[in-house]
Write a structure and sequence with these properties.
Strand content: 25-35%
Shape: globular
Number of strands: 16
Order of helices and strands: HHEEHEEHHEEEHEEEEHEEHEEEHH
Number of domains: 2
Structural class: alpha+beta
Number of helices: 10
Length: about 300
């Protein structure tokens, strides 16, 4: 049984899912005492903090591989099909095999073992053939403090979520060295692209909600798509002066859902989250509720 069908609301027992993946838990038990970070490595259920992979794997040695990151609510992955479709595109781009059916069965087994968890799911495929799925605790995302960091997108892997993330992480560290939390990436001629792990939205002085177009070399973010489905958004080139003149701004990404921006360089947004940010949060939540068929109380603890 595919995880996509599970995400649409059909049931899978823990035993059936584990059997489908052909694996046996090495610790814990379905719905019982499982590790803080449950994982599956090549179909074997385990503790992520104790799992191992061969060292001589180009996924480790050269960052040669693909990944996705998916939010799970009560053990159900949100927009799983879209994430796996994007993973397939990444694998095509970097010429990496994509064993979709096998991966879906292993995801189902892991979620059946973990139970109704509210966690993020990281999927990693390496050049050495490793299939890694990890469930990670949610993080807190207070209003972001962003610094401009100049970068140039690489056309050869544009739109791909590859393991070659050193440039993005360096950008975050460069921002941190200046006292900021994350990098708002810009081109050498001053066009804003995205934060290193999220899409960027801003509200113009006239009140228009905008986001940079994909043609700027940014990732086709699935959370970005959700926001654009729920709100009226214009794709527009953003320059650093536009970001500094914005009424409000927010970020959209799997782990942060919709996150207010509190600071961009010297521009402080005193009232973050602003009204359109709050609308985006509400729109995102309604989309989750509708797709998963769950109530606001089940998901967010509110009626």
């Amino acid at each position: 049984m595919s995880v996509a069908s599970q995400a649409d609301g059909s049931a899978t027992t823990g035993a059936a899912a584990v059997a489908a993946a052909g694996s046996v838990p090495t610790s814990g038990s379905p719905g019982g005492d499982w590790p803080a970070m449950p994982a599956s490595v090549d179909g074997v259920l385990c503790d992520a903090e104790q799992a191992t992979v061969p060292m001589y794997d180009d996924g480790l040695l050269r960052g040669d591989g693909a990944f996705e990151f998916i939010r799970c609510y009560a053990g159900r992955p949100f927009t799983l099909t879209e994430h796996l479709d994007r993973l397939a595109r990444t694998c095509t781009t970097i010429r990496l095999p994509f064993p979709r059916e096998q991966l879906e069965a292993e995801i189902a087994a892991l979620l059946a073992w973990a139970g109704r968890v509210f966690m993020d799911m990281r999927i990693v495929l390496t050049r050495g053939g490793r299939r890694i799925v990890i469930l990670e605790p949610y993080l807190d995302w207070p209003p972001a403090h962003l610094a401009f960091v100049t970068d140039s997108p690489r056309a050869v892997i544009a739109g791909a979520k590859s393991l070659s993330y050193a440039g993005n992480m360096l950008a975050k560290r460069l921002a941190g060295e200046r006292g900021f939390w994350e990098a708002l990436l810009t081109t050498p001629d001053g066009r804003v692209m995205e934060v290193q792990q999220a899409a960027y939205f801003w509200v113009t002085p006239q009140g228009d909600l905008c986001t940079p177009p994909l043609s700027e070399g940014i990732l086709d973010s699935i959370t970005r798509r959700v926001v654009m489905k729920r709100l009226a958004v214009e794709e527009r080139v953003c320059r650093t002066v536009d970001a500094l003149a914005a009424r409000e701004a927010f970020l959209a990404g799997t782990a942060r859902e919709v996150q207010a921006v509190g600071v961009v360089e010297g521009r402080v947004f005193e009232d973050a989250p602003g009204p359109l940010t709050l609308q985006a949060i509400e729109g995102y939540r309604r989309e989750v509720e509708e797709q998963l068929g769950m109530s606001a109380e089940e998901l967010w603890g509110t009626p």
